Amino acid sequence: MTNELAIIRSLIIYSLCLPLAIFLGYVLAMPLDPVSLTIIVLAVSLPLIPVLLRWHHVLLVASWNMSAVLFFIPGRPNLFIALAIVSLTISILHQVLHRDGRFISVPSVTRPLILLLIVIVITAELTGGFGMRVTGGDSYGGKRYVFLLAAIAGYFAITYERVPEEKASKFFALYLLGSLTSIVGSIAPFMHYSLYFLFTIFPVENLQALRAGSDVAGSSVRLGGLAFSCLAVVYFVLGRHGISGLFGLSEPWRFMPVRFRGGFSINHPWRILIFLFMIWVGLLGGYRSLTIALVLTFAIQFYFEGMYRTGVLPVLVLVGILATALCLPMVQRLPITIQRSLSFLPIEVDPVAQASADSTSEWRLAIWRAVLPTVPQYLILGKGYSINPAELEMQEKLAKFQNTGDSGEGAILAGDYHNGPLSVIVPFGIFGAIAFLWFLGASFRVLLYNYRYGDAGLKSINTFLLSLFTARCISFFFVFGSLHSELASFTGIVALSICLNGGIRRPVTVPVEKPTFNQFKLARAAK
Fold first, then answer.
1. Helix/strand number for the chain, H first, E second
2. What is the dihedral of CA 143, 149, 152, 155, to 10 degrees?
3. Is the peptide bond before 329 cis (omega within 30 degrees of 0)?
4. How far apart, in whole angstroms, are the C-alpha atoms of residue 42 and residue 38?
5. For residues 506 and 170, is the Cβ–Cβ distance under 8 A?
6. How would you classify the pairing of strands 258-259 and 265-266?
7. Could you give the C-alpha distances from 97 to 83, 93, 102, 134, 423, in angstroms and in order?
8. Which of 44, 52, 323, 456 is 20 to 30 Å from the Cα of 34, by its Cα?
9. Are the CB atoms for 66 and 80 separated by under 8 Å?
10. How far is the C-alpha of 278 from the C-alpha of 282, rounded, in Å?
């Protein structure tokens, strides 16, 4: 009987493998196109299915902030998009088949997300559909819908199961330090041509500098990917150790910079040195918004940790005054990109850096002045993300004919408003704005409760997640924001908090025992 089952199993395997091998041989014999490449890569990746079944949750958290793309799929989607879909599918199948797992239920967050999902789908259907040119559609802009849907799907996939407390620091490190992959595309102008194959997975940030070579890779090149990577390291230090741990130099000093026992962490004195060095390198990106985000996050976490009640506040103020007095006369000797990062401060910087910053600000103001009058017509039904290719081509030709350069009309047509509120209400109307604001309020409540009533071992991480979410909200509304690119950041933060804490933590109420009276004893005492 056993031999018969083995023969039947072998026949089934051969009946599946032989046609697949013939089909792959046919595909390999034909000219290689994107569709054929996708089929080949998927077929070669079939042995990785057991890995996905076992580690899909970890891989999704690790890829959430990665810059990696799937080059063999048309449109080159980000890695986290594919893993969000795969992880959610596996989680649903596991729920149906085994029924021993259950999604962590937080209705206050899931309801606005579902409402936002409904608004997105209805708006897309009524304004041109989800069509994408890379898949044969008649319009551009469908990839932005994919980003929004993946952000929502990823939230449910991450919150499928709770992470044990002993693994919380590892998941937190994977979530933040995935941004380090942005370095590859950022330093492309400085890399040898033999390593250019890496750019098929990690997109190049500055294509002009890559074509021109390392001669232009000087102080004027804005290394945005490097800045984001350094910001991730700074955030990891703040989240893993907190501000109190950052300045707590009373801990034992160790020769090794990092340790893995008890969770990945950074030792002193390397902790404060790495923190300051990463801030310095991050300023090379030349992005004022990153500088503002870092200052906001640090200040908010400083408040939530209660550090203003300690002696750290006067010391920090004194050090800040001394550092400003020493560095202010040397600001104009710093690299142009660093001066541009600091140009929003009331200090005198190089005219080149100031002109670059002012031109960007004026460009954004011109876009806002042009878009604000159109808001009333999109209050009920949003504009959506669908872009007519003929209109886009006409706009490009008109800009070249008039020699106006990048005046902002192309950005307006593409929906790049560089403003958080406009990026919500113009594409999705008042209903999308209500759903998004509802989601932000519910998420803040979840993070606040987990910060107040979470386990002591997660205190530092919960404090940082609340501070980061608050800083992101302020930056989204008042500095720079884009719904399709930042919704994944908001859903990722609250989903990570939920899966680390097992949902929303609430105050523990200790039941008060009511005294019981024996009527017979009371009667005797009265006599």
1. 21, 2
2. -70
3. no
4. 6
5. no
6. antiparallel
7. 21, 6, 12, 36, 40
8. 52
9. yes
10. 6
Q: How confident is the model at residue 221 (pLDDT cuts 50, 70, 90)?
A: low
Q: What is the pLDDT of residue 493?
A: 96
Euclidean distance between CA atoms 334 and 295, whole angstroms? 20
- Token pair, residue 49, equals 């299915």
The pTM for the full model equals 0.87
User: Quick one: DSSP state of residue 69?
Assistant: B
Rounded CA-CA distance 243/483 in Å is: 30
263 φψ region: left (φ > 0), alpha (ψ -120 to 50), beta (else) = left
Phi, psi dihedral angles at 516 (to 5 degrees): -100, 140
- DSSP assignment, residue 47? G
- Show the tokens assigned to 458: 């997660």
Average pLDDT of the chain, as a whole number: 82
Q: Which residue has the tokens 């609430």?
A: 506
Burial class (CB in 10 A: 0-12, 13-18, 19+), 262: exposed
Q: How far apart are the first and last CA of the chain?
A: 88
Tell me how far apart the alpha carbons of residues 68 and 49 are, in angstroms, rounded to a whole number.
20
DSSP string for 328-394: GGGGGGS-HHHHHHTTTSSS---HHHHHHHHHHHHHHHHHHHHHGGGSGGGSSS---S-B-HHHHHH
